[in-house]
Amino acid sequence: MPSGIVSRRDFLSASAGSALAGAGVLALAEPAGEAVGIRRGDLPDLTIKEVKVYVVNPAKAGGAASDGQSRIAAIVTKGGIEGNYTLAERYWHPNWSNLGWLEYAKGVLPGRSVLDLPALTSQWTPTKRRMGQSSYASAIDNCLWDILGKAVGLPVYQILGAYRNRVLAYASTQHHRTLEEFVNEVQQCKAQGFKAYKIHPPELGRNGESKHDYKLDMEIAKAVRKAVGDDFFLLMDPVGVYTRQEALAVGHLLDELHYVSFEDPLPTKDIDGLVELCQAVDVPVVIGEFLTSPYYYGEYIRRGALDEVRFIVDNIGGISSGMKVAQLAETFSMQCQPHNWGSVFDHAVHFHCELAMPNNVWFEMTLPQGFSDRVYVKDRIRIAPDGYVYAPTKPGLGYEIDRDVLDRITIRIET
């Protein structure tokens, strides 16, 4: 295993805390600014002046026609700094359409300071805690971190407290339909420099029908291991479709094949089944992608229903809540494995968390490389020849919008 990858029975935390623990946004931003010669009086006015949404059609500038229209959140300060994040539809969360984001943000942000970030995005009040996290707050949180980084001239992870400057990538597959597709792809990934590969097994249903074959998944797991040898790291993510019996069968095989991660083998709500599975197999069981509040993780950790913790920042309140979950996992000597999927900004927010937390190993690189590219972003996320993804150097989220391209593809600006 690479440095930092150990079984749940052997894992010992290497750090007792991180830069966010017990510190407010101001306490983070000011020292970060001073580190690059910026004093508090030198900072631009961080009062929020305007909230808007760019509705864009990437195909107008040579983007993939399949991208269709998309929406980009923008929060602008009186000092002229703009923070951005994507507003996308994802999976099955009822709040994930983000269709009401603009009106919500206009109601809570103008006139407030970016330094009020926790008060603007926290879900601590009882009525909000029991409802689950609103994605509206998540997009706000990510935009405000983008602004803070730009205000002090640093990438977000350095404000959070940099633990590393690179993260080892695994290649994360699409749901191919045949064994041969996975075998061919993993061989290509190894040749490209990847040192790890995660299988999303076939979805065999048609026209929206959910159908899987766990026996086929087991054959794929064996064939992929044979194709790359024993010195290559393999992960499995069936996205919660197995029964308890199927998960046990696959998990025991993954133990024999020395896989290092078994993500979402069961539906997230089946806590009893997850406890049973964690006790029965050695491969780390990874859960959290479908939890919709940072306050839901405690039950899973307390009951031993997971071995490694996972999150999507859009689900749980943005970068701020992602770091809370990472620190919770760290205090229980658990690794944290953030999700990565979608646009370059989706990758970026998780990447900054990974760079700032000690208890992370992996960067999830969606296949094919370039899947996350957007025509309106100048920078690209790729693995280096050594298999790592290196930290961005530009301020804020670190991946710069090409304003000329954005202007060309913008259909309208909603205010």
Architecture overview:
- It contains 15 helices and 12 strands.
- With 415 residues, it is of the alpha/beta class.
- It has 2 domains: 25-154 and 404-414, Enolase-like, domain 1, CATH 3.30.390.10; 159-390, TIM Barrel (Alpha-Beta Barrel).
- Strands 4, 5, 6, 7, 8, 9, 10 and 11 form an 8-stranded mixed β-sheet that branches. A 4-stranded antiparallel β-sheet has the order 3-2-1-12.
- It is globular.
- It starts with 24 loop residues before the first helix and ends with a strand.
- The relative contact order is 0.16.
**What is the CATH class name of the largest domain?**
Alpha Beta
Q: CATH homologous superfamily name of the largest domain?
A: Enolase-like C-terminal domain
Number of domains: 2
Radius of gyration: 21 Å
Number of helices: 15
From the N-terminal CA to the C-terminal CA, the straight-line distance is 50 Å
Outline the low-pLDDT stretches: 6-23
Shape: globular
CATH topology of the largest domain: TIM Barrel
The biggest sheet amounts to: 8 strands, mixed
Strand content: 5-15%
Class from helix and strand fractions: alpha/beta
Give, in order, the helices and strands.
HEEEHHHHHEHEHEHEHEHEHHHEEHE
Multimerization state = single chain
Task: Look at the structure and give the mean pLDDT.
Answer: 89
CATH architecture assignment of the largest domain: Alpha-Beta Barrel
